[in-house]
Backbone:
């Protein structure tokens, strides 16, 4: 765990020296001494990213799997990746295929707080189960590249403890732009039973032809 007293730490992937950065503003974290990054999937971490990751025990954060580091690896070997910045669709596909083969599931948590606050992501009226449609202004077709592997779930963080758990169905070959408004606890307790129950509850909406 990063602290001012830690010296001689090394990166678990490349074994290069890392230093503990323990300032008063940004959450404490480790960084390579040299301005480089050994994991090609790594992005500069924002405070939003660090705060989400810090909600899990330290031994479940930045876990090495092959040549990569998962943001979070749960005891059930499910990976959770937090994404604030834009990302190439090819990299999304590579990550999803890699973790499908090396973990028991993957969940993306995408930072949509600014889009939601500025009304670029607009929710419809939610039903009793929290199921709702939504749309972007303008539309964001690249979001359809997330969650194409069957074991992958996608959450949009709307701010605070509020998330939108996007549905896994497609309608006429396109993303349905629908999902469930849920509490952050759904990410912490993410499991297959909850996913299946929510999917079954949504079937009537998709048979009606949401596009």
Residues:
């Amino acid at each position: 765990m990063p602290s001012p007293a830690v010296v001689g730490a090394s990166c678990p992937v490349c074994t290069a020296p890392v230093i503990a950065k323990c300032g008063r503003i940004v959450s404490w974290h480790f960084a390579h001494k040299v301005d480089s990054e050994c994991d090609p999937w790594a992005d500069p971490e924002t405070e939003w990213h660090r705060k989400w990751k810090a909600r899990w025990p330290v031994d479940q954060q930045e876990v090495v799997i092959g040549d990569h580091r998962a943001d979070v690896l749960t005891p059930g070997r499910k990976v959770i990746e937090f994404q604030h910045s834009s990302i190439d669709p090819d990299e999304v596909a590579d990550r999803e295929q890699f973790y499908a083969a090396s973990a028991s599931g993957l969940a993306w948590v995408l930072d949509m707080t600014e889009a939601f606050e500025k009304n670029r992501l607009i929710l419809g009226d939610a039903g009793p189960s929290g199921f709702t449609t939504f749309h972007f202004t303008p539309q964001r077709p690249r979001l359809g590249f997330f969650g194409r592997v069957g074991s992958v779930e996608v959450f949009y963080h709307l701010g605070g403890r509020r998330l939108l758990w996007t549905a896994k169905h497609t309608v006429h070959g396109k993303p349905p732009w629908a999902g469930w408004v849920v509490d952050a606890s759904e990410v912490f307790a993410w499991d297959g039973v909850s996913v299946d129950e929510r999917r079954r509850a949504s079937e009537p909406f998709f048979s009606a032809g949401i596009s």
Q: What stands out?
A: The helical segments are 47-53, 89-102, 113-117, 185-188, 192-207.
